[in-house]
Design a protein that fits this description.
Helix content: 55-70%
Shape: elongated
Distance between the termini: 31 Å
Structural class: mainly alpha
Number of helices: 8
Radius of gyration: 23 Å
Number of strands: 0
């Protein structure tokens, strides 16, 4: 992840500086690029879609089932993850404390991904707006306010193009794991298991 982030940063910095120079503006230093709309928008646009994908994947696997998919819970009966928590000496503190803390903790994984999604969404919006307004200045046009930009198609295009690819990836994993196998992978059924059974 860090290698790819560094690659994105360096190639994005070069790409942005090429565009600035083509339009007669000075190139950004490496420190300036860290705070640029170009870098912030590109980074958090991708993170936003990843966190949305994980949050919805976790929430949907609670109640939705796919016959034969290694990614699905059994179609019948309850599983270990469905049982009510029992306080014991090695249990996490919210389980021991009970009450509101336990209620929150029961959904803490999806809540964490929801908060990460909202934070990334906000930073994506901020970076995208900043990048858009820099482009407006290069074209000698007026920058736009946040409320106005929220209704622009560009920001939503950036989001939807990432969201749809994340949902496609999850759907592909769920469906393909019915018929295809990968020996040794916890995401796959055993190689000799029938297609319509779940591990």
């Amino acid at each position: 992840m860090l290698f790819c982030l560094a690659g994105q940063f360096l190639t994005g910095w070069k790409t942005e500086n090429n565009e600035l120079e083509e339009n007669g503006f000075p190139a950004l230093t490496i420190n300036e690029y860290v705070y640029s709309g170009h870098f912030i928008q590109a980074t958090f646009e991708n993170w936003e879609s990843e966190f949305l994908q994980m949050m919805l994947y976790i929430l949907l696997t609670v109640s939705l089932r796919q016959k034969g998919s290694s990614e699905s819970k059994s179609l019948e009966g309850k599983e270990e993850v469905d049982r009510d928590p029992v306080p014991h000496s090695k249990a996490p503190w919210p389980v021991k404390k009970g009450g509101i803390w336990l209620k929150i903790y029961k959904h803490s994984l999806s809540l964490a991904f929801a908060l990460l999604f909202l934070l990334s969404f906000g930073l994506h919006f901020y970076g995208s707006l900043k990048n858009y307004n820099n482009e407006q200045v290069m074209k000698k046009e007026l920058p736009v306010k946040a409320v106005q930009y929220l209704s622009e198609s560009r920001f939503w295009f950036e989001s939807f193009q990432n969201w749809q690819s994340e949902f496609l990836a999850v759907a592909s994993l769920v469906v393909l794991s019915i018929w295809l196998r990968e020996k040794g992978s916890p995401e796959s059924k055993p190689v000799d298991m029938p297609h319509n059974e779940m591990p």
